Fold this sequence. Notes:
Structural class: alpha+beta
Strand content: 15-25%
Oligomer: single chain
Distance between the termini: 57 Å
Largest sheet: 10 strands, mixed
Radius of gyration: 22 Å
Number of strands: 17
Helix content: 25-40%
Number of helices: 17
Shape: globular
Amino acid sequence: MAHTSKLISCWPKDVGIIALEIYFPCQYVDQSELEMHDGVSQGKYTVGLGQSKMGFCSDQEDINSLCLTVVQHLIERNNISYNDIGRLEVGTETIIDKSKSVKTVLMQLFAECQNSDIEGVDTINACYGGTAALFNAVNWIESSHWDGRYALVVAGDIAVYASGNARPTGGAGAVAMLLGPNAPLVFERGTRSTYMQHAYDFYKPNMMSEYPTVDGKLSIECYLNALDHCYALYKKKFNVNCAGGVGENFTLDAVDAVLFHSPYCKLVQKSVGRLLLNDFLANPMLSSRNGLFASLENFKNLKLSETYFDREVEQACLIASRDVYQQKTFPYLLLANQVGNMYTASLFGGLASFISKQNLKDIVGKRILMFSYGSGFASSMFCLSVANGSPSLGHLLDSFTNLTQRLGSRQKVDPATFAEIMNLREKTSHMAPYSPVCQIENLFPGTWYLLCVDEKHRRKYERKN
């Protein structure tokens, strides 16, 4: 124990997220209009999935351009030098080259300042790669190899599906996070939990297609199974390492926000109920002290593994968790609802949404519980806390004051045109040589875009304005 205390005293103070930037495409399709176009029942996408709008990319954008855009925006907005970056890692599952990493494409941004001493490459496992890259960055800063510079983590994807039931769960976007000591969003030490298993719930075996192979029912089961195990282990670690701060046993009462990887918003709502069920089953006596758990009383002898598709349990959990969901999760589904599933960036889009709803007076001391999931599968749960006195906190909050306005400035595209663009991407995503045919006029200022692909599949990019 003395050895552990000595190590902690040597670590940089308050390691965490100093700055955060998000990019999403300039166009979207309305989910209610998509319901009519697809000939499905009204509310199937908007109520059944909980989605309102879905961002998407034309043939002018790919994973490289998304990441170029979000990194340059972060550097410029925070007025830092490219020389200040000592590690850069990208989490993505949008693969356009089986060898060359997105990180190496981003190195062109560092060419002018001649900074080539930058560790990290790409990390891949479905929607989990961004979280793995984030953990790697924290580990680097807290290691003997840290040279005092910032780490930069990028998570981005273009989520597209073949025409059918899964297509409305798509989306696109990228997040860049600047990490270092004395951060406003600090990683809680000693409680991070992880659960990994082998499953074919969602995977991409066809290297010539952007579309995944999905077992929908298995995917939900794996997600909820991972959530149960990560939460149980997180609670165990918290109770050992941090219980003196807020009580003997961890429950959702101990945090101010609960954020999730969001394939679609309805699954997130069910997941909040799932966590409440975990709290109840871990301590059934809670129902006698807290009316919150009254609707769960009949299920105190159930095994969690038997409840994944039990409608009665699900409805009871939704009822019990209604207030918790409305207070600690729903407000922070803004980007998930308005942009869709950004895969590796999804969880951090929730963090951006959280920041956009805060003010400097009330945010200090808040704790944010985060659940990351990637099919196949890999999952983790961790917690961020908002530090008091961080010099970067005000600037971080200011970065997202216009998030709603940015979403509102996008162009709505009708479902027929959306389908045409999806067909175009399907035919041309691996074509060489190729010059994109969609127009750049509607791209946001400062957006990088694909100029052309030559006969050797080499991609060239330019920046608008």
